[in-house]
């Protein structure tokens, strides 16, 4: 597995420090509130698990499973919902927890979908942001790292379902995903 990684972009410690900083901001901003965190599966599951344990306010969590990529490393633009919310988010303060904001297609779709359920507020928290590839102008309210236009894996992010268990964010060797 490690042999497929070209370089480590963000170390385990750097991720840990960033997750704490993001949680501090959310704790402050939502101190009198009872938000619902919505994790976007599968990629956000590690980030969600670490973030939520640094959240000190009372909150709930839910997950959605969507896919925009299939097994390819380039976006298709099509978004499919595999798992919908279990909670009613009407009049709730909602925070979407995403692993990476890339073209913005997935989140644009998802945010429109969630807005149609009338939350009282909707914010986006993403660990990684690849602004160079943005096709739709979305900005995250809570953003971890801006990264260059490279395909990354680890800390929940996969390529063909592999590498999610790496504790750091690494750049995959291009020969692994070029057909
Ligand atoms: P968007 O719709 O913003 O282009 O894509 C968001 C989704 O694409 C992410 O949730 C993630 O699943 C996938 N994605 C985008 N860039 C990368 C990347 O560099 N590595 C991996 N593993 N997935 C990515």
CATH class: Alpha Beta
Which sequence of SSEs, written as H and E, runs from N to C?
EHEHEEEHEEEEH
Average pLDDT: 93
* Small molecules bound: guanosine-5'-monophosphate
Q: What's the end-to-end separation, in Å? A: 19 Å
The biggest sheet, with number of strands, parallel, antiparallel or mixed sense and barrel status, is:
6 strands, mixed
Strands of the widest sheet, in order across it, are 4-3-2-5-6-7
How many discrete structural domains? 1
Tell me the strand percentage band: 25-35%
Q: How many helices in DSSP terms?
A: 4
Low-confidence stretches: none
Q: Can you offer a commentary on this structure?
A:
With 179 residues, the chain is α/β, with parallel strands linked by helices. It has one domain (19-150): Rossmann fold. It has helices spanning 12-29, 45-52, 105-115, 174-177; strands spanning 5-10, 36-41, 60-67, 80-83, 93-101, 121-129, 142-146, 152-153, 169-172. The longest helix has 18 residues, at 12-29. The structure holds guanosine-5'-monophosphate (5GP). Residues 43, 68-69, 75, 98-107, 151-153, 157-159 line the site of guanosine-5'-monophosphate.
């Amino acid at each position: 597995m490690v042999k497929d990684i070209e370089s480590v972009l963000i170390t385990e410690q750097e991720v840990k420090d960033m997750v704490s900083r993001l949680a501090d901001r959310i704790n402050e901003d939502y101190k009198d509130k009872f938000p619902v965190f919505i994790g976007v599966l599968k990629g956000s599951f590690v980030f969600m698990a670490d973030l939520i344990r640094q959240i000190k306010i009372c909150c709930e969590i839910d997950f959605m499973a969507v896919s925009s990529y299939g097994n390819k490393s380039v976006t298709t633009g099509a978004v499919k919902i595999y798992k919908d919310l279990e909670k009613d988010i009407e009049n709730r303060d909602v925070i979407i927890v995403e692993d990476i904001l890339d073209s913005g297609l997935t989140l644009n779709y998802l945010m429109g979908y969630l807005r149609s359920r009338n939350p009282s507020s909707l914010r986006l928290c993403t660990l990684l942001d690849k602004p160079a590839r943005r096709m739709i102008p979305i900005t995250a309210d809570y953003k971890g790292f801006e990264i260059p236009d490279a395909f990354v894996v680890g800390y929940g992010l996969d390529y063909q379902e592999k590498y999610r268990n790496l504790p750091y964010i690494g750049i995959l060797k291009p020969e692994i995903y070029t057909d």
